[in-house]
Amino acid sequence: MRFADICGFASLLNLQQYDGTFRRHRRLVHQQFGTKAVAARYRDNIKPESHHFLLCVLDDPANLVQHIKTEASAIILRITYGYSISPGKTDPLVHLIERTMDVFAAATVLLGWAVDIFPILQHFPEGVPGTSFKKQGREWSKLLETTKDESTGTDKTRNEHWEDDIKKTALVMYGGGADTTASAIHSFILAMVLFPNVQRKAQAEIESVVGSDRLPQFADRERLPYVNGLVKESFRWLHVAPMGVAHRTDEDIAYEGYHIPKGAYLLPSIWWFLHDPETYADPSSFDPARYLAPRNEPDPTDEAFGYGRRICPGRFLADESLFITVITPEIQTTSGLICRPVDFPYSIKPRSERSVELIRRVEGNHAWGDEDAELVRDDLKRHGC
Asked: Average pLDDT of 155-179?
């Protein structure tokens, strides 16, 4: 992806070459998110934001999609930066990073830019037909640098090398955590609209385990097999990264009569793996029961989060975030490395007055924290963002 490189995105973990920098960045991310036990430590950060999400949906159900984005952003910003977003209004840092993620999606569309098809164009002088990407690349590279600096603050560390590592890996944590989690939750909402029988079965299981006197908790998970299947199906049914991340071969490979030369780029068709009818019966159907006995179809998370050195390091955190959100509500998608459903009609409302009472109660338990927007607002104005 030559254009992504021009914009500076090739310096981020998910597009880096496998070298010492990649291993160093990967190690930093793995230390924070790499195991189930580590991800479970963040439940106290996830739970308040999931409850804030319920309050926002209760008060303003028409803006559900924005509430989904806000929840996903709030969780990862709280965990990664210790940053509290502005409640009930646009947060400047969230807005800046969302712009950067939108730019990342546009820059990484497969063969979406002339320079990706004809790399020689990068050596032509600006102004020659077909080189408009150069100006766009400079603008987006500046946006990326501003986002890295603002999101991690201006305090200098003693080691400039490690400071840059931390900035880049922190931004990747946000992009990999917030954008993909929001897309998965959005897909889950669409599935509940299209498959109301699944929603009813999940609600019945939750009520049988949790009752009506409290909201569900992480501790309930082991007793909710159908809901666990629903979480898995949300990752499979409308996968957020259908083409996965490109891998490059380290050596010549012979595979079933094909010769794959060293240095070739391979794109895994994760969408196909998760919709192969020989693996998943009626793959276009959203069916959490497929993972339960007697069917016991394969766990889609083995494919959904990628492979090998480039497997998603935040997969366990994504699973935790999706679970707690799921237990408390013709398909078209946008283009880019991360996709999500386009707008669709829906209605969302509390199931009972008792549900409203329980949601209102969490406002006292998890009050909105002091917002940190003022820490970055002046800097953003200075950068013209």
From this structure: 69
The continuous run of DSSP H or E covering 259 comes out as strand 258-260
d(CA 345, CA 382): 40
Tally of CB atoms within 10 A around 69: 22
- pLDDT (tens digit per residue) in 334-372: 444 445 555 656 667 677 788 788 878 877 776 666 567
Mean pLDDT in the chain? 83
Answer for the pair 66, 344: CB distance below 8 angstroms, yes or no: no
The string of pLDDT tens digits covering residues 92-128 is 888 887 888 888 888 888 778 888 889 899 999 988 8
H runs (alpha helix) in the chain: 2-6, 20-33, 36-40, 43-59, 64-81, 92-107, 114-117, 133-152, 160-174, 180-194, 196-210, 225-237, 270-274, 301-304, 315-326, 353-365, 374-382
- Could you tell me if 143 and 100 are in contact, meaning their C-beta atoms sit under 8 angstroms apart? yes
Cis link prior to 300 (omega < 30° from 0)?
A: no
Binding residues for heme, by number, are: 312
Which of 35, 87, 62, 328 has its CA nearest to residue 185?
328
Evaluate the CA torsion angle 274, 280, 286, 291 in order and state its sign: negative
Distance CA 228, CA 231 (A): 5
Residues 94/72, Cβ–Cβ less than 8 Å: no
The CA distance from 306 to 268, in Å, is 8
> Could you give the domains of the chain?
2-382 (1.10.630.10)
pLDDT tens per residue, range 248-280: 899 999 999 999 999 898 889 999 999 999 999
Which residues, in sequence order, are CB contacts of 362 under 8 Å at separation 6+? 51, 54, 55, 215
- Residues making up the binding site: 312
In this structure, what are the phi and psi dihedrals at residue 61, rounded to the nearest 5 degrees? -65, -25
Query: CA of 295: how far to CAs of 7, 173, 202, 228, in Å?
Result: 47, 35, 18, 15
What does 83-101 look like in DSSP terms, one character per residue? PPPPTTS--HHHHHHHHHH
Q: Give the 3-state secondary structure of residue 222.
A: helix
Is residue 216 scored above 60 in pLDDT?
Answer: yes
Residue 3 to residue 134: CA distance in whole angstroms: 9
pTM for this one? 0.79
